[in-house]
Amino acid sequence: MNSEIRNLEPTAIWNNFADLNAVPRPSKKEERVIAFMVDFGKKLNLETIVDNVGNVIIKKPASSGMENRKTVVLQSHLDMVHQKNSDTEFDFDSQGIEMYVDGDWVTAKGTTLGADNGLGVAAIMSVLESETIAHPAIEALFTIDEETGMTGAMGLEAGYLEGEILLNLDTEEDDEIGMGCAGGIDVTAKRTYRLEETPDNTLSYTLKISGLNGGHSGMDIHKGLGNANKIMNRLLLDGFENFGVRVAEINGGSLRNAIPRESKATIVIDAVSKEPFFFEMNELINAIYADFKSIEKELTIQITPADTPAQVMELGVQEGFLKSVQTALNGVYRMSPDIEGLVETSNNIAKVVVKNGEILINCLTRSSSESNKIDLANTIRAAFELSGFEVSYSGAYPGWLPNIDSEILKTLDNLYKKLHGEKATIAACHAGLECGILGQNYPNMDMVSFGPTILGAHSPDERASISSTKKFWKFFIEILKNIPNKA
User: Fold this and answer.
1) Beta strands 263-270 and 246-253: pairing type?
2) What residues have CB less than 8 Å from 442, skipping those under 6 apart?
3) 10: preceding bond cis by omega (within 30 degrees)
4) Radius of gyration of the chain measured on its C-alpha atoms
5) DSSP-assigned beta bridge partners for residue 253
6) What's the half-sphere exposure (Cβ side, CA atoms, 13 Å) at 297?
7) CA 120, CA 138: separation in Å to the nearest integer?
8) What pLDDT was estimated at residue 110?
9) 3-state secondary structure the chain
10) CA nearest 320: which of 393, 236, 260?
11) Which residues on neighbouring strands pair with residue 367, listed in sequence order?
12) Contact predicate 55/142, CB 8 Å
C-alpha cells in the first residue's frame, strides 16, 4: 500500500515521508522517531544534536557559493496527532501509518495521516541529503510534542541555534504565507461524585454520537462543525430535565486540539417514561440533524438498549455538571478586529469523561490576544467552578505577533508572485505554531511559515495534495536559493 507513495513526485519528499511514517510517533512518545532522526543525520555525516528535552538539531554547511548568505533554521515537529475511526483497529504505539493514493490526495486507512507535520519534516530531510540543491548554512530543527503541549519548543534553550531566519514548514494552504498565530492554554475541570445505586424499575440505554467531521480545533473552529460533547450534553440535559435521565458513564472526544467526533453515554430512565422519552429524543435528534444537515452529512445519533449499570452519578452533581457543560462556550468567542476573517479567540470542549466517581473535562482555549485568551479561560473556569469543579490551567504558550516589515516575508511574497503570477495570501492563523515560543529565546530571528495543502488535519480524514506538494517543493527550493546576504 505504501509502495505507491514512493513513486510520487517529488520522490525525495514522498520517500522520506514514507520512511518517517513507518516509525510510530504519537505526541509524548517520540523516542523512536528521535532515534530515527539522529540516525538519519549521522548517516549523512552531519553534526547532529539532541537537546535536553529531545529536540533534534542537524546542521549542514552552506553549498558552494552560498557561504555569504544568512544561516537559515528549517523547522518542523516530529510528533503527530493520533486519531482513528471507531471501527478502525490500529495501535499508534506500534504500527506505521497505512497510506494510499486517492486521486490527487495521499490519505491513510482510517487514521490520521501525519502530513501535519510529517511533510515538513520530509522536505527538510530531502534538503539535508541533497547534493544538488543550492542553500545557505542550515540548522534543521525537529521539535517534539508540538501537538499536545509544545514542550519541545518551550524547552529549546538559547545558544543551540545561530540562524537569523527561521522557515517553519507547518501551514496547510499552499497559497498562504504565515506571519503570526494564536497562543493557547489548556483548561482542565475535575470533580468527584458519589455513586448511587441505580433505581428500581428502570431501563438502560447507550446513547452514541458518531460520524462528525472533527478536525483541527484552531483552523476549523470557525466552520460551525458539530462538537460531539456539546451535542451529547444537549441530549442529556433535555432528557434529565424532562424525564429524569440518570447518567452512568460518558466518554466523549480525545485530544485537546481535535474537535471531538464521537461521544458515548450510558443512561438510565424510569420504565414508565420509555415512550415519551423516545418521542422527545427523536424530535430533538431530528432537530439536530436539521441544524447540521449541510456540513455534517454523516452525523449519526443512536439510542440502543444496554445492560443496566449497578450505579449512576449522584443527582445533584449530575445537574451541575450538565448545566456547566451547557454554559461553557465552545467555538468562536471573538473575531479579530484587525485582520478580516481571522478568528481571534476560541474554545474547544475537547474531552468529557464520566466514570467511577470522577469527571474530567479538557478544553483548549486559543487567542492571538493574550488578554482575551485569559478572559475566555476565566469564563470557562467560572462555568465549572459554579458547580463545584476544581479548574486548573496548564500548557500555556504565547502567540506569534505579526511583523509586517519582515525581510524574509517580503522575500517569500516576491518569490511566490514571480513563480505563480499572483500574490500569496499573507495571513496570521488561529492554529498554534511554534514560532511565538521559539521567539522567546531567539527574539531577533526573522520568521515565516508556509507549507503544502493539507485537509482534515487532526482527523482520520486528513489528506495531503500531491500536486500541492510539488508546488511547495519548487517554492521551498527557490526560497533557499534567494536567502538574503549576511549584513
Assistant:
1) antiparallel
2) 158, 161, 166
3) yes
4) 24
5) 351
6) 1
7) 15
8) 95
9) CHHHHHHCCCHHHHHHHHHHHCCCCECCCCHHHHHHHHHHHHHCCCEEEECCCCCEEEEECCCCCCCCECCEEEEEECCECCCECCCCCCCCCCCCCCEEEECCEEEECCECCCHHHHHHHHHHHHHHHCCCCCCCCEEEEEECCCCCCCHHHHHCCCCCCCCCEEEECCCCCCCEEEEEECEEEEEEEEEECCEEECCCCEEEEEEEEECCCCCECCCCHHHCCCCHHHHHHHHHHHHHHHHCCEEEEEEEECCCCECCCCEEEEEEEEHHHHHHHHHHHHHHHHHHHHHHCCCCCCCEEEEEECCCCCEEECHHHHHHHHHHHHHCCCEEEEECCCCCCCEEEEEEEEEEEEECCEEEEEEEEEECCHHHHHHHHHHHHHHHHCCCCEEEEEEEECCECCCCCCHHHHHHHHHHHHHHCCCCEEEEECCCCCHHHHHHHCCCCEEEECCCCEECCCCCCCEEEHHHHHHHHHHHHHHHHCCCECC
10) 236
11) 183, 345
12) yes
Cα(227)–Cα(18) distance, integer angstroms: 32
Cell of 167: 522557515
Per-residue confidence (pLDDT) for residue 401, from 0 to 100: 84
| pLDDT at site 250 | 98
Pairing of strands 446-449, 165-168: parallel
Residue with cell 467552578: 385
The low-confidence residues of the chain, meaning pLDDT below 70, are: 1
CB 378 within 8 A of CB 185: no
Active site residues: 79, 146
Q: Are 460 and 255 in contact, with CB atoms under 8 Å apart?
A: no
> Which pLDDT belongs to residue 339?
83
- Residues in a beta bridge with 249: 266
| 266 within 8 A of 309, measured Cβ to Cβ | yes
Predicted pLDDT at 404: 84
User: What distance in Å separates the CA atoms of residue 217 and residue 363, rounded to the nearest whole number?
Assistant: 10
Cα separation, 184 vs 85, in Å, equals: 27
Write out the three cell numbers for 475: 517554492
Cα–Cα distance measured from residue 435 to residue 482, given in angstroms and rounded to the nearest whole number:
21
pLDDT for position 338? 83
67-103 burial string, b = 16+ CB within 10 Å, else e?
eebbbbbbbbbbbbbbbbbeeeebebeeebbbbeeee
- Overall residue count recorded for the chain in this entry: 487
Nearest Cα neighbor of 353 from 229, 463, 462 is: 229
Taking CA atoms, 277 is separated from 47, 236, 238, 308, in Å, by 67, 11, 10, 17
Position 97, amino acid: I
Whole-angstrom CA distances from 111 to 87, 228, 443 are 10, 18, 37
